[in-house]
Write a structure and sequence with these properties.
heterodimer, A: Immunoglobulin-like, seven-stranded mixed sheet, 0% helix, globular, B: mainly beta, Immunoglobulin-like, six-stranded mixed sheet, four-stranded antiparallel sheet
Chain lengths: 115, 113
Amino acid sequence: DVKVTQSSRYLVKRTGEKVFLECVQDMDHENMFWYRQDPGLGLRLIYFSYDVKMKEKGDIPEGYSVSREKKERFSLILESASTNQTSMYLCASSYDGTSDYNEQFFGPGTRLTVL
Amino acid sequence: AQSVSQHNHHVILSEAASLELGCNYSYGGTVNLFWYVQYPGQHLQLLLKYFSGDPLVKGIKGFEAEFIKSKFSFNLRKPSVQWSDTAEYFCAVDKAAGNKLTFGGGTRVLVKP
């Protein structure tokens, strides 16, 4: 079974703090993704990475950065947290095969509250 | 920009009722289509997917979806729901081989026992 884990289920931070969200997958997947999930908006892609040290902006990258130093780990960084970044953050990973599209597997999510 | 619309935000129905959730997308090229489900307190998981071939695809737990290319739609159906189908359902679209998903806003389904 593919397992995607996220470092915290719940996190409370103050405005202006630097926040790190960690994601680890155990299936040697090449691709990793960070989404935020907000009611009525579904999931929106923040950043993704298709290889170690490689990253691409998603649809809403502003206010976020990412780091991928090892294949199994993908970190999302909020340099200076703001209240509008209060959300559920989901990490996902997928295999980068050459044939059929490969399913994305999701972690349990981190509910971040910025006060 | 590619967008995905789910027609209903909330659906409430009784056990044994039939369910149909609408999904439309705006991208005109070749797409891969997905329905994901998130049960209360659980991870988002894949319900079914369409890449090519038969436009009627069957997924887990008795769900199916029909791709109608002319209508840019991929509606999800289940003939008879159970209380355990209470969840949030997300439609997602990817341009072929892009591996980047665009999600709809989600539909919360509540099945009354």
